[in-house]
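Dear support,

I submitted the protein below through the web form. The confirmation email said the job was done, but the results page showed an empty box. After a refresh the structure appeared. I'm attaching both so you can tell me whether what I see now is the final result or a partial one.
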Amino acid sequence: MNHPHPRTRIAIFAVLALVLQACSQDEVSEVSTADAGAAGSLWTGTELLGGETVEFPAVLEEKPAVMVFWATWCPYCKAFMPYTREIQKDYAEHGVQIITFNAKERGKGDPRAYIESLNFPTVTIADADPIAEQYGVDFIPGLMVVDGQGEVVYRRGWTELPAGQKVAQQWDSEVRSALDETLGLNSASAP
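What the results page shows now:
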């Protein structure tokens, strides 16, 4: 019986591991940290609740923003989204906005009801799959911070943590650090 060369077996196992990882992450979040500083995209979207046209980067009004690509079915999104309320409140004096994008929804939920249930104002873009594609968001939540010109200054990395409070707190801390740096706040004066 012929057995494959050890290097061939390793390559086969590596490919299988990648395939299994991709399949198992259908509802797991991942966004590459590569090119975190890449130029922001220009886009136009429709606000989910009011139907107004939103243009980027004009919507920033030259202030940083937290951008979250989410779907109603995503457990990671559900864990993190409540933290955006506190981020918005804590950085309001600096003009920081929360801009959310309903993406990869797959017809599984009611985005309008979900965003209304958060009970705080956000700019929420409906049907944002094309915008997610512009930013290279393959898995959600896509979470990033942009500066006032729309340049991405933070993009969350991959995690093995399960959805829940621990990963949400980690992302909250990372977003706050990125905002502090972008705004020129030192840790002693940060919100």
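Response: this is the final, complete result; the empty box was a page-load delay. The chain has five helices and seven strands.
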